[in-house]
Amino acid sequence: MAKKSQKKQSEYTAGQITVLKGLDAVRKRPGMYIGSTSARGLHHLVYEVVDNSIDEAMAGFCTEVQVSLMKDGSVRVIDDGRGIPVDVHPEEGVPGVELAMTTLHAGGKFDKDSYKVSGGLHGVGVSVVNALAEWLEVEVVRGGKRYHQRFERGVKKKDLEVMGKEKGSGTQVVFHPDPEIFTELIFQFDILNDRLRELAFLNRGLKIVLSDERDGLEEVHQYEGGLSSFVEYVRGKRKALHEEVIYFGASKKEADVEVALQYNEGFREQTSTFVNNINTHEGGAHLTGFKSALTRTINDYARKNKLFKKSDESLSGDDVREGLTCILSVKVMEPQFEGQTKTKLGNSEVRGAVEAIVNENLAVFLEENPKAAKAVIEKSLSAKWAREAARKARDLARKKSALEGGVLPGKLADCSISDPSLSEIYLVEGDSAGGSAKQGRDRSFQAILPLKGKILNVEKARTDKILSNDEIGAMITAIGCGIGEEFDIDKARYHKIIIMTDADVDGAHIRTLLLTFFYREMESLITQGYVYIANPPLYQLKKGKKEYYAYSEEEREEYIDRFSNGKEGTGVQVQRYKGLGEMNPSQLWKTTMDPDSRTIHQVTVENSTTAEKTFRDLMGDEVQPRKDFITKHAKYVKNLDV
Ligand code: 0RA
């Protein structure tokens, strides 16, 4: 007996050493596990914990997940699943919950027969969160009792303890991100809310609540319509070509497949694909299967029902996807994630499964809904004609620029160096601000392109019209990498493209138009991090001969407080800048363009599904959502994470 317990003791210690080594590796190289230690990595911690609750929901045991952002900077995630097992693991000699918290990739030790997020961006396991938390407390309700355990930087403070009796079951994890690890510690409601909404759409009926205890904000997501609701949400206020969202779901041995789609009167396609709830931005086998089934089924139907004028007519994939909103969600046992950002599904067997399911179900829908079918085919045919017109417009544009010998636009004041990685271009609202910028700039590496008036709204126009717009043409030529199918990022003439507009509603509108254009036509400029937003000051304050600049209302108040020292009458002159044109060239340089003193905000896409919707709302036909966005974001340039 004594011997046995001694043996157990030494095994336990050896186990603890491995645990420490594992979690230590996470603390040494956190980027390897969560991508970064900035805001993105920080939010990733929450997704990691929530993913475990979602896994429990996918297995059919959890109906509600509550996420709370606490006042002390911690996050709490509660679910009503089965609770993490608390019994002592026969081989490891510690309770399951402790194992889950301290062992890398412990997930598979419990449950092999359910879908798990593995590989990809998530799925590194809750132990990674534990390792990167200043402290973490887990509570489990299971088998009539509530249990509790606390860890600090991955190290347990005590053994698992019974707190008392309790009915029901579930898991609660509360953690505080470690300031020694993260450069950003403040959780952003909107970022988490976008992802949680997405998860609720993807898991029909599951209730997900996000509450912000810092300011009392709360959002509840629960969608009985699942993917169909998701499609309606993304479509927004666009007019649908057919009332009902087309939905089908089926299972094959290779994958469970769910698809929802709907056509609208717009010209853009918005398809998002998911594998085990992870957005597969780079597509892969499932998307390939879907696309080929869609093209084939629509062509077959049109031919069979004599909707083509000529017998040899056919629609391309691009034609049949114009105005399409689609969500494709598959669940795969052992997903292989590939590609640059590990968001491309590699499992080739999934292609055939999706293709077969879409072929069969879509054909049935078209047969049963001839009116919708006809609308979709007419729309695709008009897309085809427009594409032909665009090709001609592009050829014409190419010939024209060949005639001109590839000359840069006359309005462009180019920089003198030719190394793109060192060059910047400022896209400036208005000719007068453009003039100041030209005088104020450092001409060696800064180019200026003034843009006159409102730029064409690319959300509402087809490519042929976009290409014939002068302001857009000048921008495309200046940047140098073409657009659409001919886009080539390696030809970019500048690696910093800085949008500089007035700090008013018009400026915000022009900025959004430009961002929409880049997002639609030159997306990798954004994903490569080439696009920035300038941050001009809102106020100039003068005290005697000294000048100060305030970039926000708070900053202006701070300056005034500082100057007044509690006395009345500060002798401070405050000037509000209504536009860039009110600054002279040297002021513009100092406040907004000098790399040593300016701030510029890099544009990133946090959640591409939401970004897509944001642009639709902003730039589509509806005026109200556009107003909402501009007033919300114009003041907080930092939040322009479109
Ligand atoms: C493995 C097995 C079982 C539950 C869980 C994991 C589980 C983990 C987490 C993490 C957060 N919430 C969770 N809920 C459940 C249960 C096995 C069984 O009861 O048979």
Which structural traits does this protein have?
642 residues; alpha+beta; Heat Shock Protein 90; Ribosomal Protein S5, domain 2; Rossmann fold; nine-stranded mixed β-sheet; 20 helices; 24 strands; 20% strand; disordered N terminus; binds 3-[3-(1H-pyrrolo[2,3-b]pyridin-5-yl)phenyl]propanoic acid
Helix and strand content put the structural class at alpha+beta
Q: What is the helix fraction of residues, given as a range?
A: 25-40%
Could you tell me the mean pLDDT?
87
N-to-C terminal Cα separation, in Å? Answer: 65 Å
**So, the CATH homologous superfamily of the largest domain?**
Histidine kinase-like ATPase, C-terminal domain
Biggest β-sheet strands, sense, barrel: 9 strands, mixed
Alpha plus pi helix count: 20
| Shape, principal axes of CA atoms | flat
CATH architecture of the largest domain: 2-Layer Sandwich
At the first level of CATH, the class of the largest domain is Alpha Beta
- Which spans have pLDDT < 50 for at least 5 consecutive residues? 1-11, 624-642
Percent in strands: 15-25%
Number of domains: 3
Compute the number of strand runs.
24
Bound molecules: 3-[3-(1H-pyrrolo[2,3-b]pyridin-5-yl)phenyl]propanoic acid
CATH topology of the largest domain: Heat Shock Protein 90
Gyration radius over CA: 28 Å
Polypeptide structure, described:
It is a single chain. The protein contains 20 helices and 24 strands. It is of the alpha+beta class and 642 residues long. The protein folds into three domains: 14-221, 2-Layer Sandwich (Heat Shock Protein 90), CATH 3.30.565.10; 227-386, Ribosomal Protein S5, domain 2, CATH 3.30.230; 408-536 and 601-636, Rossmann fold. The strands form five sheets. Strands 1, 2, 3, 4, 5, 6, 7, 8 and 9 form a nine-stranded mixed β-sheet that branches. The chain has a five-stranded mixed β-sheet with strand order 10-11-14-12-13, with helices on both faces. Strands 18-17-19-20-24 form a five-stranded mixed β-sheet, sandwiched between helices. α3 (39-58) runs parallel beside α6, α8 (285-304) packs parallel to α10 and α19 packs across α20 (624-633). It starts with a helix and ends in a 9-residue tail after the last helix. 41% of the residues are buried. Bound molecules: 3-[3-(1H-pyrrolo[2,3-b]pyridin-5-yl)phenyl]propanoic acid. 3-[3-(1H-pyrrolo[2,3-b]pyridin-5-yl)phenyl]propanoic acid binds next to α3.
